[in-house]
Structures are given as structure tokens and as C-alpha cells.
Automatic annotation (TrEMBL):
This is ABC transporter ATP-binding protein. It comes from the Bacteria. Residues 371-605 form the ABC transporter domain. Residues 56-338 form the ABC transmembrane type-1 domain. PROSITE patterns: ABC_TM1F, ABC_TRANSPORTER_1, ABC_TRANSPORTER_2. One of its GO terms (cellular component) is plasma membrane. SMART domains: AAA (SM00382). One of its GO terms (molecular function) is ABC-type oligopeptide transporter activity. It is found in: Cell membrane.
Length: 608
């Protein structure tokens, strides 16, 4: 059966019964290098750079709100000294109005910075998602065979979501934390260097505590994301493979295997959350400590007349806010580390090499349809040769049937012809031209596929057929369905051509799906047809309909058939019999029967 790795036969390629996985996701690194993180930050920076102007506005608003936040406590201190301590005259109302104004500016600036930053963040992650999605279409097909689909989905959703949340809030918080802290320090130094030094004594304790925590949380968040991806992959696999799970009564094993993965995610999340939770507790404790230190030291200094009561009020107010920027820094650094971990996983996809056509490859104009394999050899990775020295040729409009036992290499021939894989030796030519010199998209545009496992999208029957040629009119779609013998069953559907097909075509039989696939190919009208005959038993009436439709489709069209039905094989112009990757024999049905070789044996056993 023709299997596009991870794309074609769902059940065929799925490791459903493999209970112990070595783990999906990126290879586990012992230590996260800062250079890796900086690389990721640079990439995020490049995305953010597009919104420079909005970011500049955000930065301005952060500066404004931080400045207002600093000015408030200072004015409060002045008020205390002026009106309470010295009982000096003056207009208290003006000062209070000034204070109200400062806090109003702070609130306004905070709201605006939030509003603009969300705009930047959402646009940035939307572009990341788009780039990732586009890149998924640019990577070669073997990539999909290596990755769990749900795990890939998790990178596009969970991981990007993490980046989105961080950009929306953490960025501002960290920046304003730094600005506020620096400003506060400046103010404090001007007011009383001695009290400043005393208040800062808690910082080394805080720093040591934070360092201890963040060293653990970064790694734990990566683990958490990795396990989340793995679990996502497992869920996706289970949902799409429910039929197989149920047919083999493997529900219990499946649930147990889920439990194992869920347990790993729980453990990773538990420790990640626990450690990151420590941060805020630590900060509150230090906050109280610094308040106590300022109150005690400040009172002593005030008694000696070194500082005024107003300065203590300002310091105490700062002390209350002191921990806020540091807290923000610390907690947000955790969130940011988690987001960087997510971004790293997302960018990992972007760093996958794209399917490259090479500089010399160009478009393929009209195709007559001659196909030639000349001494073609191929191996999947460093496994031994899957195909060895394949040579055969068909003229335009002819049909070649690939036959042979399972695993002989029939599908691999098709994978090479479509350039999903490249041969290690020999040449494949279409109309005498080596396909390596043809752009993949251009090559595939001349090909039509009718595969065993027809993939239908969540769309109407009409649009599913139209997938063959997007600009086709409704009339052309219906004409194609008629030629494909699909019209009569479509007409009986509740809403005819406008019936919506859900979840890959549930509610439509296997045979009907094939008829739709044939209609798609009829509409696409390709020069070369790639056909993977269904092995599954289909009722006789539908079988006849499919046969009829296929004969119409194959007429005057070069066809490469991974053949299972004797009728198709018999009518083929050339039968290539494969055995363990080599051509055992080739020729027409009559000539091969006459030889009484492998084909003759195969034919006899099928007949019997
Ligand atoms: N993506 C892959 N990676 C590694 N090995 C593969 C891959 N696809 C197929 N193979 C191996 O290559 C050999 C030929 O496989 P292929 O699918 O071409 O056989 P086939 O004749 O089409 O079989 P069937 O009739 O069962 O579909 C098999 O041994 C198979 O295990």
C-alpha cells in the first residue's frame, strides 16, 4: 500500500501499540545553554522588530508610568514633612491635586502600554504561527514520518500560546520592573544614601534565593512543555486510531499508557509550578523584612536627626513597592524561561531544512507522459537498499502495474517518482528529462493521485472534489463526479453536493470515498496518474463502479498503478514484478504468463 509517511494510511504508519516511547520532542539536553536562549531571544526580537513604532510607544508609556509611580511616594513624603512634621502653611489642596494627577497619569499610561503591547504580541505570534504553518508545507515528507502529529500541533498551539502570554504581559512587567527599580534607587540615594544602603541589605539574600529557584524552573518548564507535547501526540494518535484500539480491545493498555505519560506531565508540572510558586513567597518575606529594616533603621536615624519622618514615609512606601519590580522580575523571568522553552521548540520546526529543488531545477511545461527508470537504486537512510537497479520504461498513455509481495518496494517506486525521496543512484526521466531538474511542485502538478486512504477535508462534497482544480465551475465538478460514477450516490446525500463532510469523511463508505478521489483526479485532469488500488473489500456494485471510473480516468493517460486487482494488472501495458527491491521480471500479462515465472506463480496463487 502506498504510504506517504505519516500522511497516507493512518493506521498503517501509527505506532499504536508501542507503549513505551523513548519520548518525543527535542533531544533532551543536560543543560540549557544561555547561548541557545539568546539565539531564541534574537529570533523573537526579529519578529518584534517589525512593530518598532508601537514598541517605542509602549516603552514611552512604561517610562511615564514608572516615573509617576516614583513621584507619588516622594510627594507623599514631602506632604508629611511639610504639613504634619513642620506644620508649615501652604496649599495642601494643590499638593493633593498634584498627587491625584500623578496617579491618574500612572493609571492612564499603564492602560495604554497594556493595550499597545497586546496588539504587538498578538500580531507577532500570529505571524509566527503563519510562518510555522507555511514551513510545515515546505519541509520534505520524511519529516512527518519522524514526528508525532499531535506533538507538532502542540508546538503550534501550546508553545506559541506561551510566547503570546509572555509577550502580552511579561515583557512590560520586566521592563517596567527594571526602570522602576533603577529610578527608585536613584531617588533613595538622593534622599538618604545611608538609609538606601541599609534597605538594600536584603537584596543579596533575595538574589541568592532567586538564582537557586530560576536555575531549576527553567529546566522544569522545558520538561513540562516537552511532556505536554508528548501527551498531545498520544491523544491525537489515540483519537485517530480509535477504530484500531477498539478492534483489538486495547482500551485498557491505551488508558494505562496515557496514565504513564500523564503522570510524567503531572510530575514535571508539579515541580515547575512549585518552584515558581516559591518565588512570590520569598519576595513577600523579603518585602516584610525590608519594611522592618527601614522602619527600625529609619526611626533610629530620625531620632538622631539624620533623616526626616517624610523620608521614612517615602522609603517605607518605596519598600512596599520595592519588592514589586523585583517580584515581577523574578516571577516573569520564570514565565519568560518557559516561553523561551516554547519558542525554542517552535523555532526548531523553522530550522528544519526545506525541501530544496536546487538552483538548476525549473518548470515542467506540457507533459506527454513517457516514464523511464534507469538503473535506479534507493535506500531509506542508512538501511540497506530498498530498491536496487530498477530499469523499466513506459510510453505516453501507457499503464505500468507494479506488483509483488508486501514490502517489495512498490510504494517506494512511487515515492521516488513524485520526488518525495531522491534516488541514490540512477535516473528517473519524464519525457526524457531527469526529474531532478524539475521543480517538485511543477512535477506534482502534472500528477494526479488516487490513493487507498482518501483524505477528505472538513468541507462540502463539492469543495472536496474541487480540491482537484480550485477554479473549476460547479458544472465541471458535477461532470467530473458523473465520470467518476460518484454522481448517483452524491445525489442521494441529504444536501447533495452541498453536504458537509466531517471528520475526514465519517458517514461516507470506503468505496464512496474512492469514487470522490477519482472525481478529484478527473477534475484535475493530470498527465500522469498515480493509483494505489484498494485492497480492502468493497461491495461488488461499488467495485464495478470504481473499475469503470478508473478505466475512464486511465484512458489515454500515463498511469502508474500499485496493483492488487488482477483486472487492472492484466490490462496494463507493462507489468513490473518486484521482489525484495529488485525487478524479478517485467513484460505484458501474456508474455509473463508464457514464461511461467514469478508472475505466473503469483497469478496462480491469486486465482486460487
Ligand atoms: N519511510 C520509510 N522509512 C524506512 N523504511 C521504509 C519506509 N517506507 C518503507 N520502508 C521499507 O521499505 C521497504 C519497501 O516498502 P514499500 O512500502 O515500498 O513496499 P510495498 O511493496 O509498497 O509494500 P505494501 O504492498 O505492503 O504496501 C519495506 O521493507 C519497508 O519496511
Amino acid at each position: 500500500m502506498l504510504k506517504m509517511p505519516g500522511v497516507g494510511s493512518r493506521y498503517g504508519t501509527m505506532p499504536l501499540l508501542r507503549l513505551k516511547r523513548s519520548g518525543g520532542g527535542p533531544p533532551k539536553k543536560g543543560k540549557v545553554e544561555w547561548s541557545d536562549r539568546i539565539g531564541t531571544l534574537r529570533k523573537i526580537g526579529a519578529y518584534l522588530g517589525v512593530h518598532r513604532k508601537l514598541l517605542a510607544l509602549v516603552v514611552f508609556m512604561v517610562l511615564l508610568s514608572s516615573a509617576a509611580g516614583l513621584l507619588g511616594p516622594y510627594l507623599l513624603g514631602v506632604a508629611v514633612d511639610t504639613y504634619l512634621v513642620r506644620r508649615a502653611g501652604g496649599n495642601l489642596l494643590v499638593l493633593l491635586a498634584g498627587l491625584a494627577g500623578v496617579y491618574a497619569v500612572q493609571t492612564g499610561a499603564t492602560l495604554l502600554q497594556h493595550y499597545w503591547m497586546i496588539g504587538v504580541a498578538q500580531r507577532t505570534v500570529a505571524r509566527m504561527r503563519e510562518d510555522l504553518f507555511a514551513h510545515l508545507h515546505a519541509v520534505p515528507i520524511p519529516f512527518y514520518g519522524k514526528k508525532q502529529h499531535g506533538e507538532l500541533m502542540s508546538r503550534l498551539t501550546n508553545d506559541i500560546d506561551n510566547v503570546s502570554q509572555t509577550l502580552s504581559s511579561s515583557f512590560i512587567q520586566v521592563f517596567s520592573g527594571v526602570v522602576t527599580f533603577a529610578g527608585m534607587l536613584g531617588f533613595m540615594l538622593v534622599l538618604s544614601p545611608l538609609l538606601t544602603v541599609i534597605s538594600l541589605t536584603v537584596i543579596p539574600v533575595m538574589y541568592a534565593g532567586m538564582k537557586w529557584i530560576t536555575a531549576r524552573t527553567g529546566k522544569l518548564f522545558r520538561e513540562q512543555q516537552r511532556h505536554m507535547g508528548e501527551l498531545g501526540g498520544f491523544i491525537e494518535e489515540t483519537i485517530s486510531g480509535q477504530l484500531i484500539v477498539k478492534s483489538f480491545s486495547r482500551e485498557r493498555e491505551r488508558i494505562a499508557a496515557f496514565g504513564e505519560r500523564n503522570g510524567r506531565l503531572r510530575a514535571a508540572s508539579y515541580w515547575a509550578q512549585t518552584y515558581s510558586g516559591f518565588v512570590s513567597k520569598l519576595v513577600i518575606m523579603l518585602d516584610n523584612m525590608s519594611f522592618a529594616v527601614i522602619a527600625a533603621a529609619g526611626s533610629l536615624l530620625a531620632i538622631q536627626g539624620i533623616v526626616t519622618v517624610g523620608v521614612i514615609v517615602t522609603f517605607a512606601e518605596y519598600a512596599r513597592q520595592f519588592s514589586r519590580p523585583l517580584n515581577q522580575l523574578a516571577t516573569q523571568i520564570n514565565t519568560m524561561l518557559s516561553a523561551i522553552a516554547g519558542a525554542e521548540r517552535a523555532f526548531e520546526i523553522l530550522s528544519e531544512t526545506k525541501e530544496s529543488d536546487g538552483d538548476s531545477a525549473d518548470e515542467l511545461a506540457a507533459v506527454k507522459g513517457e516514464i523511464e527508470f534507469s538503473h535506479v537504486s534507493f535506500a531509506y537512510g542508512d538501511k540497506g537498499d530498498t530498491l536496487t537497479d530498477l530499469t523499466f520504461r513506459i510510453k505516453p498513455g501507457q499503464t505500468v502495474a507494479l506488483v509483488g509481495p508486501t514490502g517489495a518496494g512498490k510504494s517506494t517506486v512511487v515515492q521516488l517518482l513524485t520526488r518525495f525521496y531522491e534516488p541514490n543512484g540512477g535516473h528517473i526521466r519524464i519525457d526524457g528529462r531527469d526529474i531532478r531538474t524539475i521543480r517538485r511542485q511543477s512535477l506534482r502538478r502534472h500528477m494526479g493521485f488516487v490513493l487507498q486512504d482518501t483524505v477528505l477535508f472538513d468541507a462540502t462534497v463539492r469543495d472536496n472534489i474541487r480540491y482537484g482544480r480550485l477554479e473549476a465551475t460547479d458544472g465541471e465538478v458535477e461532470r467530473a463526479a458523473e465520470l467518476a460514477n460518484a454522481h448517483s450516490f452524491i445525489a442521494k446525500l441529504p444536501e447533495g453536493y452541498d453536504t458537509f463532510i466531517r471528520e475526514g469523511g465519517s458517514g461516507i463508505s470506503q468505496g464512496q470515498k474512492q469514487l470522490l478521489a477519482i472525481a478529484r483526479a478527473v477534475l484535475a485532469d493530470p498527465s500522469i496518474l498515480i493509483l494505489d488500488e484498494a485492497t480492502s473489500s468493497i461491495d461488488t456494485v461499488t467495485e464495478i463502479k470504481i473499475q469503470q471510473a478508473l478505466s475512464r480516468l486511465m484512458k489515454n493517460r500515463t498511469s502508474v498503478v500499485v496493483a492488487h486487482r488482477l483486472s487492472t494488472i492484466r490490462q496494463a501495458d507493462l507489468i513490473v514484478v518486484l521482489e525484495r527491491g529488485k525487478i524479478a521480471e517485467q513484460g505484458s500479462h501474456e508474455s509473463l504468463m508464457e514464461r511461467q515465472g514469478v508472475y505466473w506463480e503469483l497469478h496462480r496463487s491469486k486465482d486460487g
